[in-house]
Predict the structure.
Amino acid sequence: MSIVNCLSHQLPLSHRYETAHVEGKAIHRTQPERDALQLLGSFLIQYGVSFALECNLFNLWLAKYPFGGDLETQFPNNKASQLAAKQKIVQEMSLGQSSDLALSKIIKLIMDNEEGLKKMVEYELVSQSGGGYNDSDESDDKDEYAQIWSEVHGVSTTPVGLGPMMRRNPRARDESFEEQTLRRRRREAMVLLETGRPIEREDIIQRVDP
């Protein structure tokens, strides 16, 4: 897919952008990268995450994306801290807590897809305690990832090995089903604009249940 190839070619500039962002410097992504991110988000909505995965979305781009910039400089000789910092940034994006709207939308769409979430765990973009994917026991894996899926979406309170950052919000225990649904839908509102002008109502696409 040409969009993924474009983003792959932009990775060195993405590294510069992420590093500057961490350092508090005001720089912008390149126009080709901004366009490609917005196109990818629209593509995921229209054609689905599974098709994007078939186009090597992770191998060519997402698994290589420099979340947090130069983590080796920030955490020298500390792979565990580097991984934790990257996963924290990804988690913030999935919860809509990042100012990077275009990339956050892509992360949210991928993690809302069971197959996409499985890939996020496989490539260590989200944490999973107790080991990684095991091809030798596919049926157990399906059950395990189904549990992770329900945990992320606030369906189940059963603790599963997705790490403390991915555990269900305790606040949900005190909310009714309708309140949880409304809050989830608000999170799922997808902002497509990244031009700097004020966001207007027509710039927001919200999922409509069938």
Confidence is low (pLDDT under 50) at residues 129-142, 155-172, 190-195.
